[in-house]
Amino acid sequence: MAEPKRTPLFDLHRELGARMVDFVGWEMPVQYPQGVLQEHLWCRAEAGLFDVSHMGQVHILNGDAPAALERLVPGNIVGLAPGQARYTILTDDAGGILDDLIVTRTEAGLFAVVNAGCRDADIAHLRAALEPICRVAELTDRALLALQGPAAVTVLTRLAPACAGLRFMQSAEMPVDGIPCRVSRLGYTGEDGFEISLPADDASRLARTLLAVPEVRPIGLGARDSLRLEAGLCLYGHDIDRTTTPVEAGLAWTIAKRRREEGGFPGAATILAQLRDGPPRRLVGLRPEGRAPAREHTEIQDRHGRRIGAVTSGGFGPTVGAPIAMGYVEPAHAAPGTPVQLVVRGKPLPAKVVELPFVPHRYQR
Amino acid sequence: MATRYTKDHEWVRVDGELAVVGISEHAQEQLGDIVFVELPEPGRALKQGDQAAVVESVKAASDIYAPISGEVVEKNSALEDNPALVNESAEDAAWFFKLRPADPKELDVLMDAEAYRAFVETLT
Fold first, then answer.
1. Which of A209, A278, B9, B71 has its CA 20 to 30 A from that of A106?
2. Which of A291, A292, A315 sits opposite B58 (nearest CB)?
3. Residue A196 DSSP one-character state
4. A1-279 is classed in which CATH architecture?
């Protein structure tokens, strides 16, 4: 095992009393003394500050970066206006998912944020496919903070008045408390909020400034996971991976109309066939009827006890106030309202297929 | 008699003919917010070290083991309705179950409060 990597906020996390855990080779805060439940509820009620500096930040420059990237993703990247961000997927030749990422059109090309666990593989993949037409540059001297929750815009406007002019999935460079940042109005909680890319050396100062505001509290990876699950957002390596396609994962909305007509992305044959004929399984929301959470890998059965799939993310939803889960089921059982059974510690427990998300998104569109 | 502890962070306290079992203050702190507790049904015979109950926090599930052998005679149903009680009162109101000890000598291998405190310190 290599030495665990640390973000520029490592010392601050320790000062705040965080419990640190290994997350894909990074030493990250899983929770602060407040605890996962209170952190989760605080983020939905006020504003939470997340250190997501472990995520990969990449510039794709020169050449025609949007057209070049479209060879690797099924999204409409060419159609992005400068300052517009889009959620998209790196697919493999079988239609599986290599990673999910947010791509922003900038004046110089594209700015991408990729998952920490896929960071090295993604960059190698981008380099192999896009260089030498484009230059792929990993921004190793940048930190990434997320400020999420209904109070986020009020708080950030005091330090960066221009942020209030952004709508959901818009991004701009602007000073935040005098620090040169890229501010994007998006996140991974279902709430309104921002992600702030900034020089690593300034990250601790800005984080401390934000945490000094009464509405802002630090949020660890534990609540980040329960917040995204309630928002019905996929977690790479759990709900999506190389064995799942975007159509199965309910991410067909990321496949643009023009791309469906033209193809030209890895795995197009499989993905377009699934769009036409339907996928062999679908990711659905699940609500256990009792109080017992159904965790990842829990078997999903039909009412007669036949296996129809498995849970990929599951736990307790603090805002829902009950257990929630996502998992893949055969398409015949994917309609909301379908009764199913979740086999928890050998016992089949009644549950229902439900619409995602579990908690409505509150994006400022 | 005094409370005794296991290395898996259960506590057991003999009260007359019965032994009361729960999880330690340290265990509840480590687990965080408890959202679900599954308890053994009265009548179930447990051997020392058997998986006896389950507690789940927002993040994860943990098994709770029988600190001594015996037959379960009562479970604390209050925990099923209010799992958060474990966070509030782990070593008192949030007892998990009572059992009739099969062999009181099994208590001898468990730690007293002082030994347990020293054990917990080695973990951090």
1. A209
2. A315
3. E
4. 2-Layer Sandwich (3.30)
